[in-house]
Fold these 2 entries.
Entry 1:
Amino acid sequence: MSFFERNRRELIEKGYEPARLPPGQYLTDRFPVLHVGDVPSYRPGEWSLTVSGLVERPFTVDLAELQALPATTLTFDIHCVTKWSKFDTTWTGVRVRDLFALAGVRAEATHVMEHAEFGYTTNVPLADITSDQALVAYAFEGEEIEPIHGGPVRIVLPQLYFWKSAKWVRGLELISGDSPGFWERNGYHMYGDPFREQRHWGD
Ligand SMILES: Nc1nc2c(c(=O)[nH]1)N[C@H]1C(S)=C(S)[C@@H](COP(=O)(O)O)O[C@H]1N2
Ligand SMILES: [Mo]
């Protein structure tokens, strides 16, 4: 029996609904760390997030301002394109759509480019990043997000592969038409639905 078959059998034995695990994935209890480049460290007050592009009122918030906005805590499963999935992760933050409401999204906007520290970018449709589930998150399991996992603030967008969830997010740019981000220019899928196994171009 392969590792993947054994893992699926264990998942059923643990009482999980097998359909929760997307095709080609395995379940882990660990929380792997995955990114390109360095982990940034910020002096207090240094981090900020800018909402820009096709909006009526571009703005920048710091961490205190973000945390003063209405908060949401959500639990969901995350799926990395390198095949690990983790169930029931709990995140607290501000819904992306609440931030966008403050900025006033212009009618031409169709997609969002997430910009992270050191130039990491990833593209997502506006409809996905304004769904109920998409957070600008500043806490994981009730604690500050560790720097290695994207703290102080990362995007969490669980319905797409986890590379679409920028760690150390610094900008959300509303754009018209889709445009590839960092991994998408390197062969990863433009959309990245784990349940349709959209890992690479052409999947
Ligand atoms: N800024 C930034 N965000 C990133 C990445 C990255 O390289 N840089 N990697 C992505 C990928 S491929 C994954 S699987 C998740 C991993 O998040 P974790 O390290 O908290 O598990 O972060 C995503 N966000
Ligand atoms: Mo990933």
Entry 2:
Amino acid sequence: MIYFSTNKSSIPVSLKKATLEGLAPDGGLYIPSEIPRFSTEEIKLLEGACFNNIAFAIAKKFIGSDIPPDQLSDMIDNCYNFDAPLVQLDSNTFIEELFCGPTLAFKDYGARFLARLTGFFAAEEQKLITVLVATSGDTGSAVAYGFQGIANTRVVLLYPSGKVSPLQEQQLTTAGSNVYALEVKGDFDDCQRMVKEAFVDPGLNRSLILTSANSINISRLIPQSFYFAWASLQLKEQYGYSNPLFSVPSGNYGNLTAGVLAKRMGFPIGHLIAASNTNDSVTRYVKSGRYDPRPTITTLSTAMDVGNPSNFARLRYFYHNDHVSMSGDITGIAVSDEETRATIRSVDDQFGYLMEPHTAVAYCALERYRAIADIAEKAAVVLSTAHPVKFLEAIEETLNKKIQIPLNLQELMKKKKSATLISSEYKELASFLNELDK
Ligand SMILES: *Cc1c(COP(=O)(O)O)cnc(C)c1O
């Protein structure tokens, strides 16, 4: 399989190059030259298969012979040693809990796979890859724990001092081994500026091979299709539901794009609901065909506060820039903070189920879609992207009650924090990176 840039002016590359580069030289995002298709018979054979077997079948189509099957299979078992439970709320509404990985958010699915592919390709090239990331929280922790202990890789992550939650800071600073945390005396924009400067610093790039691990990397996107495929087959196998709706809490739209991939591959997936908070650039585009991104607004579902989503370029490409064709598969629904809070309360009342704000946005969007489209009987999967404990303050304040923390988290909170405090001047980052090999 070869990979193209959405901007079409870079030469097509191998998965290895696309993975190690991240962004194409023309500034576009890599996409597979064609979306692999599963025949009806192949899908039938996968019904009842376990998560990792489905993941392997999909990965193999995207990877071809670039990774030997035995190694790919081991890699997948090593990535996904946790479940994606489907919790049934009522007869036809399911929550797919994607927060059972080490950092308690769905970003573990993409980051762990990316880390292993990066390690494999780096070993093939006999190189040491340095992953440099600026983070405001969840991406950094998934990357830290994803790359932890992966040979031929190391991670340097920058986070703004005092501007991440105590739990996030714990996750960012305790991975150890090949993961280095830099606590920057500045804000997230400072961290991002410093990282950008490092990528274009010729002196640094002579001695280090730098790469980023942000959500535009194709090897983070492919694995996100696994849980769409798995849920769609489970619903069929266990409950006899075909083509369920999927409601996807969206920020950079990587998750939703992975849903489009799974649907195109031929898995029994129905309509997709792109659930956003008030950062609704894509929702407005799907309705009007006009794309005018606006400055980011801060909301209760902070991980989805994105004014100009990076994966929109891929979505657009897949629908040939045609919003009418896109709206055949996707409906965008924007949810306010007030509705999000009301949803957290009503789901707690009705089902005794604790929902964090991002999942609540998707649940609320599903309810609104069912009301508009008058299809209350159709089965639906709501993707739950984070464990409630990650957004404890927001939930406790909304429900007006205290919530118990699960035990493994208490263990995490006891681990010793290890971070290097630096100023927001680029030269401090450069000298830290130069010292790494000394
Ligand atoms: C990153 C994130 C999202 C948004 O996912 P995208 O793929 O960027 O659309 C939603 N919820 C949580 C908890 C996240 O961390």
